[in-house]
Amino acid sequence: MEITRFAPSPTGHLHIGGARTALFSFLFAKANQGKFLLRFEDTDQERSKDEYVDSILRSLEWMQIKLDDDPVYQSKRIAKHKELAIELYKKGFAYACDCSEEVLTKMREEQIAKKQKPKYNGLNRDKNIEFTDGMVLRFKFPIAGESKFKDLILGDIAINNKEFDDFIILRSDGTPTYNFSAAVDDMDMNITTVIRGDDHITNTLKQINVLAALDATIPSYAHLPMVLAESGKRLSKRDGADDILDYKKNGYLSDALVNYLVRLGWSYGEEEIFSLKKLQEVFNLKDVNSSPSKYSQDLLDWYNNKYLNFLTSKELIAKVKENSGVDFNQIDNGELAISLLAKGANSLNQIAEESIYFFQEPHIKFDSLNIDANKKILFSEFSKQLREIDFEKNEIEKNIKEFLQANDLKFPELGKPLRIILTGRENAPSISELLFILGKETSLKRIEYTLND
Ligand code: GLU
């Protein structure tokens, strides 16, 4: 059975890149009837914070990425890691090293002077130094040949072992290092496929060697190319939100975000719309693009607009109320009003913001319209006619058309000021729909307020 994991370091909130990695790991597990696990790599005591553990958990929950077991906290496994590091030492896969800071600095400086890549030169590799507390343990990295694996997205990856050094697996303070802990935890959690960012490729090559020394089954690896900003540069806080929960706060639907995230690097024929349920059936790694993808706020907005319009008006009302407190149930024709606004909106918040005129009179003064004073009479005429008609959408539309014709007017000459009178805004939905939803009484009250001003 496939077992995948997401292994965030809780040193920050879940951001776009992390959320995509978590999603792909989850979907891959589910599409293969497997399990998805979570491991907090929280060994950096200074930078890891409970606040981030909590926000990462809430982000995953919001995205409906469900865990198949309780999260694993790497910090609680340090004793186990230390034990295994010592075991590798006893078996000859690691060695004790007592090189002082000065020795290491000198080694580094000499290498830099010779234009070599600075790395530990194996000084103590064959000295059989007996390990005592306070010494570091270094991994005996194979000297000959190359380290390699077949990446499920990127294909064959191989690096000559000369490029690596005998990296530390246990620090002098007795704590394990990242590459050792991660390898041990993947082994103990029985991870079958590791899916993570391509910034971990070198780590993978190190971890594969550690796993081999531990006599563990080596999992498959899939490295996801980066998500870049639209400019092609690294995604910064200014581009995608730094905290996935900000999207929730700003009125994005989790289904829309998930659909958007999956399309950051994965495609499935020409299809664009995927429910989470469908993704759990059809997601695969072979269709993940091997080159970086770019974050696009416009595309995310497009998805959110689509998903807002998949909702019924009742669902929209509930969501807008939950997100911003604006309650469309308090106005006449609330369901029609919210559906109308959803057509052009990119977020729940935008619907709430633009809805003000359904709740409050805009009180527009005629002078502020910047139109000829003699047009006032036209508007009076128009409002008189409105008073007479049956307030049905078609009737309203017909009446507007006839009025324009009879007075030899172009639509904007009436439509533009009328839209401002009714809503206080220049950009608002169709006039006939607005009139209909506001109703005869409210519409006329607003027009008359402006004319009597
Ligand atoms: N903790 C690592 C990170 O946040 C992830 C490592 C992994 O997935 O193996 O980048």
Please describe what this structure looks like:
- By secondary structure, the chain is of the alpha/beta class.
- The protein has 4 domains: 3-70 and 227-294, HUPs (Rossmann fold), CATH 3.40.50; 75-224, Rossmann fold, CATH 3.40.50; 311-347, no CATH class; 366-451, Arc Repressor Mutant, subunit A (Orthogonal Bundle).
- Helices cover 46% and strands 11% of the residues.
- It is built from 18 helices and 12 strands.
- The chain has a 5-stranded parallel beta sheet, covered by helices on one side. Strands 4-5-8 form a 3-stranded antiparallel beta sheet.
- Helix 3 (78-90) crosses helix 5 (178-188), helix 15 packs across helix 18 (431-451) and helix 17 (411-423) packs across helix 18 (431-451).
- The radius of gyration is 31 Å and the shape is elongated.
- The structure holds glutamic acid.
- The site of glutamic acid (GLU) has 7 residues, from loops.
- Glutamic acid binds at residues 7-9, 41, 182, 196, 200.
Short note summarizing the structure:
The chain is α/β, with parallel strands linked by helices. 46% of the residues lie in helices and 11% in strands. Strand 9 (193-197), helix 6 and strand 10 form a beta-alpha-beta unit.
